[in-house]
Amino acid sequence: MADNKYLKAMQQASEHVGKTPAAAVIVSEKVKHEPARQPEPESRERVGRPRGKRSNPDWEQVTLFVRKDTKRAALRRLMDEDSPLDLSEVIEQLLAKWAKVS
Amino acid sequence: MILTVGNIKGGVGKTNTAVHLAALLQRLGPTLLIDGDAMNGSLTWSQRGDGKGLPFRVVDDRQQAKALRDGQFTHVVFDTEGNPDPEDVKHYATGCDLLVIPAVPESAASDGLFLTLNLIKSLGVTHYRVLLNRVKHNRRKEADELRAALVAMGVPTFKTEIPELAAFDKANAQGVPVYGVQDERATRAWEAFEALGEEIIHAEAMTHGR
Q1: Backbone dihedral angles phi then psi of residue B61, each to the nearest 5 degrees
Q2: Mind listing the domains of chain B with CATH numbers?
C-alpha cells in the first residue's frame, strides 16, 4: 500500500483541493490543454534560440494529411487575423476538444 | 430511480455503462436513457439498431422534457457529457438518486477521476459510487491498486468490475445491448452488468429501507 501510485495521486489531489476551490482545479486542469506557451526565459541569459515545441517534451511531431486547400485557408486566416497561434496550435486545440482529453 | 453516469475524464466508458444500466433497469420498469453528451454516443448506439436494438427509449437531452411528459418512465439514466464544467457536475450530481462514476484503472485516467471525486466531495454529494470499468484481464494489478487506494480514501466503490471486452464494441456497432451479440464472452459481459445491477438495487433498497 505504501507505494500505491493511485493513493499518492489521490492524497496529492485532495491536499491540492483543500487550498484551491474545486472549480479552479478543474479550470487549471483544462488549461493544461491550451497550447503550450513558450517556456519563460530563465533569469540567467540563455544562449541560442528560445525553446520551441520540438524540444518541449509535452509536444510530439506527427505526420497527418489535410487537404491542400484546407491548409491554405487555415494559414490565410491565421495571417489575416494576425493570430498569435500557429497551425500546430490550432490543430492541437481542435483535436484536444474532439478527443475530450481532460 | 434516477441514475447519472459521469466522470470529468472522457473515454472511461460512460456510454457503455449508461446503455447497460438502462437495459438492466428496463427489466424492472419503463426506462428512459437521456443522452447529455454532445457526441451523442447513446443516441447513435440506439440508432444503429434502427431504434429497435435497445429495449428502452433513448433521447437527446434537448428532447427529454417531451419524452418525460409523454412517457410513463419509472427509471431514468442520464449519460453525461465528457469534460463538463464544474457547474454542470454540480447539477447532475445533485439531481439524481445515484451518481455512478466509471473509472478506468490506468494512471492516465486517474487525474480526471480524482478531480471528479474532489469536486463532488466539495459539493457534499454522498450518493455516488465508483465503478472500475474497462478492466483489462492482463492488468489485474492496476485494478487492485486503484481499488485499494479508493478504499483507503473511503471512496464508495462497487464490488463489481466491468471487464474490457470486445463484445461491448460489437454491441455498440450493432446497436444492441451486449447480450444481443454473437460473441463467446457476451454472456460474461452481461453478467458483469447484472451483478452491478444487483448491487445498485441492493444499495437503493438499503437507502429507502425496503
Answers
A1: -65, -20
A2: 2-207 (3.40.50.300)
